[in-house]
Design goal:
single chain, 46% helix, alpha+beta, five-stranded antiparallel sheet, 361 residues
């Protein structure tokens, strides 16, 4: 099955489980042709299909409740219940039981492609070592959340910059087009559940964001409240594409709430799964961080080390897996992540070239 046929089959599977926004799906298809980095981000379903055969031994490594679609733009900031600024993995749409190696290899592949695209000023030879070193450190200390206060000042400085300024952020929210037509009652209920008070008047808007979930319904409620602005988002979810790749046609579980509830992290109290809607607060500092907004210093390899450490924070949600993972890592040959990364990059690149020439218009 080539990538074009796989995409068609996956989208048929997806359409049986949620209402697809065709206009957004066409944007996704076009973005997949632009370059190999957005293609990777948009095609986790294809990764899930290729991974077990491409890296069979690594796919048999100790399993955890994994992110699945981990990549360098799947990190962001939020405020915890104490109002502290937290940094970490920002999207768990594709959470499912997988080998821990899946997340590490996919993260490394995305970093290599981001460097190639000019989004990260890093040396390619350092990428895999930084990720593995951060991951092992996270496992050994049994995880520590990233609180951007008196610690991790360097990370706070690159995450907070003028492109995340409140004026810019709310201008973007105001520019979102208002929703026309019917909206599922379940989506409205999910949005209103996260409001700070009852009966707040809000404008309902449509938001195009991300790549992996582009095509899913996504609604944003924007309001004025007590002298300031607020926004809440509800996005339609289905179970991970990993289930599609394994041929599971029946009902499958959405594991978003499970993975964030078990991981070592300071949770965002406004991220909640309500039925099949994942809901969150949107604000200048409660959102995914795009690479183009980062104020990186040259060779800021610490960022990838932190991403590896944060991946361990997530995997430690399955406490019993810690020792087996460390034992498995101890047995791996030198440069194992480099070799697996190169193998998957080659497959992703081949798929992208085919999509660029034969994919949907």
């Amino acid at each position: 099955m080539n990538v074009v046929k796989a995409t068609r089959h996956f989208e048929e599977w997806l359409g049986q489980r949620t209402d697809i926004v065709l206009k957004d799906l066409r944007i996704k298809h076009a973005s997949m042709k632009v370059s190999v980095f957005p293609f990777l981000r948009a095609t986790y379903y294809r990764w899930a299909q290729l991974w077990p055969d491409a890296c069979p031994e690594l796919a048999k490594a100790p399993h955890v409740l994994a992110v699945g679609d981990l990549h360098v733009e799947n990190f962001g900031t939020w405020r915890d219940i104490e109002g502290r600024l937290i940094w970490g993995v920002n999207d768990f749409d594709e959470a499912s039981p997988l080998s821990y190696t899946n997340d590490l290899v996919r993260l490394a592949v995305s970093a290599h492609l981001a460097v190639e695209a000019g989004h990260l000023p890093l040396k390619r030879r350092e990428i895999c070592d930084a990720i593995v070193e951060g991951y092992i450190e996270g496992l050994r200390v049994q995880g520590v959340p990233f609180v951007l206060g008196e610690k991790h000042v360097w990370l706070r400085s690159i995450a907070e910059n003028e492109l995340r300024d409140p004026i810019r952020f709310w201008a973007k929210m105001d520019a979102l087009p208002s929703v026309k037509g019917d909206v599922p009652v379940s989506a409205l209920d999910a949005l209103e559940h996260l409001m700070p008070a009852r009966d707040i008047d809000y404008r309902l808007a449509h938001r195009v964001a991300g790549l992996g979930s582009l095509g899913h319904q996504r609604f944003v409620a924007v309001a004025n409240w007590n002298g300031g602005r607020l926004a809440r988002e509800a996005k339609a979810l289905v179970a991970s594409a990993a289930y599609w790749a394994k041929g599971h046609e029946g009902a499958t579980e959405i594991l978003y709430q499970a993975i964030i509830g078990r991981a070592i992290r300071c949770p965002d109290p406004f991220v909640q799964l309500r039925g099949r809607w994942i809901c969150r607060r949107l604000s200048p500092h409660c959102s995914r961080i795009e690479l183009t907004t980062l104020q990186l210093q040259k060779d800021e390899i610490r960022l990838l080390h932190s991403m590896g450490f944060e991946t361990a924070n997530v995997h430690l949600g399955q406490r019993s897996a810690r020792k087996p993972i460390l034992a498995h890592l101890q047995k791996q040959k030198s440069k194992w992540l480099h070799r697996a990364t190169e193998q998957m990059i080659n497959l992703v690149r081949e798929d992208w070239k085919m999509w660029k020439s034969d994919g949907y218009e």
